Amino acid sequence: MRRINGGRPSDWLYGDRLHLGGVKLYADGALGSRGAWLKQPYADKPDTRGLQFLTDAQIQEQANAAAAGGYQLAIHAIGDAANAQVISTYEKLTAAYGKDRRWRIEHFQIVDPADIPRLKPAGIIASMQPTHQTSDRLMAEARLGPDRLRGAYAWQTVEKLGIPIAFGSDFPVESPNPFPGLAAAISRQDMNGQPPGGWRPEERVSLGQALGGFTRGGAYAGFAESRIGSLDPGKWADFIIVDRDVSKADPQALARTQVLETWVAGKKVWEKEPSAAVERGR
């Protein structure tokens, strides 16, 4: 942090394409490896609660150093113990620096329901990835058991509490393609429509909420809402043209949406090559 740009966030550079404004920390590991730090032992391995990467004092010290330098913080937290630790860290930072520093929790994946309402008063953004729910569903059930899933991938609960959400892909761990994420967000199903009716369907969001999370929500989470995230006067004309009406597609068709053109700052930067069949007029 100190070696790059003199230890301060950069300006927006290259036509608003690059901005160095954040510091990322890690509170725990991943659920699949049983590295996510849980409040209670793993259901399928009772001798462990996962990995706590930093003590409370260490994470507070590192977070304070970043915040004092003017950086936004984004802290990886998967397990409910890790999320509780990060929330407590941000609560202290908010008391010192105010609410509009847009602290982010990256993933906010397995959370004690009692901790979720703590985000809004502390000005915390839930940065979540819908495809994690579809790829992790069976594994999460095995790791946690059925009684500890109420705060897992709880998108609608977060929305109803008025907590800002930024949806994303977690590339390169997952594909950067947003359409499977949009489909998962509205259905709680994978690309094959499993499970029927959706997994914990009460946490589904509407298409409007999902699109907002991937566009306006993402821009807000990066202090970029005056530049990108929506097609409004004064913002960059960044948009895509796709092969279907996403508002009328079922979730599985939505997940398979194809991009035909990509426009950045009002200029076409990519176009899908027509197939041989289309070129022959078929």
Condensed summary:
The chain is α/β, with parallel strands linked by helices and 282 residues long. It has helices spanning 56-68, 80-97, 130-144, 155-160, 178-187, 207-214, 216-221, 251-255, 276-279; strands at 22-26, 72-77, 103-107, 124-128, 165-167, 239-242, 259-264, 267-271.
Distance between the termini: 56 Å
- Strands ordered across the widest β-sheet: 1-2-3-4-5
Number of domains: 1
CATH homologous superfamily annotation: Metal-dependent hydrolases
CATH topology: TIM Barrel
Helix content: 25-40%
Q: Main beta sheet, described?
A: 5 strands, parallel
Number of helices: 9
Name of the CATH architecture: Alpha-Beta Barrel
CATH class: Alpha Beta
Number of strands: 8
Specify the structural class: alpha/beta
